[in-house]
Amino acid sequence: MLVEGITSRPVHGGIQVDLFARRHFFALEGEGALALLAQAPALDEAFFDRCEVLYAAADAAGRGYDEALARLKPDLFRQTPTVETLLFRLRGCLSRATMGTRLYVAGGEGFIGRCMNVAAGFGMDAGTVLTEHRGSAARRVQCVHCKGITEDVSESPFACSHCGLNLLVRDHYSKRLGAFQGVCIDAEEPVSASRTPEEVFQ
Amino acid sequence: MAIMFRQETFRDDFTYRNSPANIHRFPFPFDRDEYAYSVNIEPHVPGRKGTIYESLIDVDEHYVAEMADRALVLKEDPLRYQALPHMMQAQWDVLELLMEQQAAGYPEHFSLTRNGDRWRWINRPLGIDDTFTFGARETLPYEPLEYIGRQTQGDLCIVDQRDNNLWMDAGLVTTQADWSLDFDVGMNFMEWHGPVPLAHGMGIFDRALKFLLNLQLGQPVRRFNWTMTVNPRLDTSPENYHKWGRDRTTVTPVNVGRKVHLRVELQTLWRLPRSNAMLFVIRCYLMSMEELVTVPKWARRFHRVLKTLPQELVDYKGMTRYRDTTVEWLSRHDDGAPTSPGIWPD
Amino acid sequence: MSATSTIPVRVSEIEPVAESIKRVRLERPDGRPLPPFSPGAHVVVSMNDGGRIRRNPYSLMSEPDDRGYYAISVLRAEKSRGGSAFIHDVLKAGDELTISHPVNLFPADKRGRKHILIAGGIGITPFIAMMAGFARDNVPFELHYAMRSRAHGAYWRDLVASYGAHRIKPYFSAEYQVLPVATLLENQPLGTHVYVCGPDRLTDCVLDAARNTGWPAANVHTERFLAPAGGKPFDVELIRSGITVHVGEHESILEAVEAAGIDAPCLCRGGACGQCETSVIACDGQLLHHDVYLSDDEKAGGRKIMICVSRFEGTRLSLDL
């Protein structure tokens, strides 16, 4: 595909807390911890009494964000070893949540996409989940040809981890899949010419 | 008068052709000699006899072959049909609308008999005679949208209306100009139009959305879109782009007239009564350059339009590799004479 | 796009169903089926009241799948602008009217996992078709219905009989019963939607309670009765038509324009749909915006007016009509 520079990137408005909510769930990954920590000084004990924080340190492990989050004394704080286990816990939280619950998600694009997916499964409208992008700009990409999802894509083009086609990452994002679209880049070239991948999502 | 349905293919040996009569009813979309982007929405009302507007859902000589091609696409990739669970009521709306319109427009080919919610549908060209219960999914071999979509020319998309936006929540899409329903399902109007260049900045989608949100029952509207396709291939999906993309490199000054096709989409939009959702029918018409230049007015005008098309749109429509070759070939059929107003042949 | 295409209908039945409320049954004179409609939809009924055309929107409350007839319910408005008084005092079985195609500005969110309907008085009407739809699709719902008294409230006995007391909760203010809005909204599961239709007081109360219990705005749905408030009469200069029309105390600019034989685009007649947006060419005075369509900035800007509900106070108003 010869088109580049499409402008339909997801817009993350930031996780400014909604003080009207009765319950606050935070799903945070890596540097995403900073999105909550930055607001913490303005929030009081009563707020954190109504707070549940799930945190996967991912590539921010060892930076002490986990301890900083624990010091906020939320009603529940759980650090999970991986994003998968965080998503499992998130399902547990949402299954007993009520309409007064607000979900805040901060971390990488792929992480945000996967959390939104879980929330949608509980009838939460995408527009009601607050999101903030922090840390790596690596993307979660679905190959439009084989439908396989490749995590942590930081170069374009890249080879699909499922079918091996060379994919251009389009700036076209599906909230339902939580992924950008990858489309074969060299289909129009008679002999598969090699292209140098560029680091574009850093 | 009964339509003579052609036997032809849209893949492999590409035997698709338009009969001379069908060329004259082609929806040539340009009403002036230079390219101008516009929302171009107008009421979808029945038009002149012998045009594609004679019936609100047009059936032509390619019907049987198109339905065979659609069945092949669905067999290879069932994901071309998508429907989110809350769209079932809208699916029945669509089935009713398309059966009613086709039976009204072509009684010699289709008939619908209703006895309460027991309906009998006869589709003679495809040899179908089914009796089913309206509203009961288990009385049809497919979900209602897929069932009627396998018997209707054109892609079908059903959009839900909520929160002042339109949501692409169901569809059957096998003849698309390079967009993926499987990827776009669940998106809102602005999101699924995200990849279209230029128009966002002009506010075109904001205005179009505001208009469509007010679309009324019994007052469908239509608009045109167009692109070009190498070979008369209906399934130019992104899913299979790695297979057909190479076609774009095969155009030469010798074969351009036969290979390059103008691809026109007639989009009709209908408010659906029971669900308050909206149906988009995106009907694709293909005509080779050789067929197009048999109408001198269209030869002149299309040459001029293609020459003035902005580069962003040339890229977006995927015509970058063969636009110049096509303009060059068309220039031989443009004597510079003025063209008459309107879209129809002189 | 101009006025919606209309459907001729005949009144096949008109009967009182509660204090000051009449139910009107409409059928096509030629016996053909009416279009199916979606729950929450309304039609605009046009009435010829002694040579004067009155048009009022009414929610459809018949079975959405029954194409044989439409039913509406009409409350005699205390300060009637004419339409409801005409229906109560003049209209009789056999009379002919025209109606618009159904329009839905108050649809249920079909993805909802549970629906809570809150009605006040005549605000029950859109919910009757909605509940039929939820029951057909097997979707959980409950109705909380506030009325002045057992005699003033319409349909509540039938609804309890159809859907059960566990789903239909009536509240009578004459018996000091209060609809507990806040506690109702407090513990609802994710995916619940709430709908309110009734007097502004009730709507505001539900909106406040929803915000205070942390509901996202996307799950809260309102339909207000936006009957033109009426007000002081004034003149409007229509620049393109080259005439000046007088807008009386109990009519809207739109009605005055139509009475002068000018076909102005319009649809909902309730300040919601945006079709009658009109450019203000000159304004020496104050625009009184009563619509929910224009943004606050557009209202403050003073260059646009929704002529179906909004009014004017001052010395001179010129519109692009």
UniProtKB/TrEMBL annotation, chain A:
Tell me the ranges covered by the Dimethylamine monooxygenase subunit DmmA-like N-terminal domain, including all copies.
5-126
Top-level division of the source organism's lineage: Bacteria
Which residue ranges does the record assign to the Dimethylamine monooxygenase subunit DmmA-like C-terminal domain? 140-183
Q: What is this protein called?
A: RNA-binding Zn-ribbon protein involved in translation (DUF1610 family)
Q: Which organism is it from?
A: Pseudochelatococcus lubricantis
Could you tell me the keywords of this UniProt record? 2Fe-2S, Flavoprotein, Iron, Iron-sulfur, Metal-binding, Oxidoreductase
TrEMBL record, chain B:
Q: Which InterPro entries match?
A: HODM_asu-like
Q: Name one Pfam family in it.
A: HODM_asu-like
Write down what this protein is called.
DUF3445 domain-containing protein
Q: Which organism is it from?
A: Pseudochelatococcus lubricantis
From TrEMBL, chain C:
Which residue range or ranges hold the 2Fe-2S ferredoxin-type domain? 234-321
User: Which Pfam family is one of this chain's hits?
Assistant: Fer2
The membrane spanning regions, by residue number, are: 116-135
Start and end of every FAD-binding FR-type domain? 4-109
Q: Which cofactor does it need?
A: FMN
Record's keyword terms, sorted: 2Fe-2S, Flavoprotein, FMN, Iron, Iron-sulfur, Membrane, Metal-binding, Oxidoreductase, Transmembrane, Transmembrane helix
SUPFAM superfamilies per the record? 2Fe-2S ferredoxin-like, Ferredoxin reductase-like, C-terminal NADP-linked domain, Riboflavin synthase domain-like
Q: Which CDD domains match?
A: fer2 (cd00207), PDR_like (cd06185)
InterPro entries found in the cross-reference section: 2Fe-2S_ferredoxin-like_sf (IPR036010), 2Fe-2S_ferredoxin-type (IPR001041), 2Fe2S_fd_BS (IPR006058), Beta-grasp_dom_sf (IPR012675), DmmA-like_N (IPR054582), FAD-bd_FR_type (IPR017927), FNR_nucleotide-bd (IPR039261), MRET (IPR050415)
Q: What is this protein called?
A: Ferredoxin-NADP reductase
Tell me which species this is from. Answer: Pseudochelatococcus lubricantis
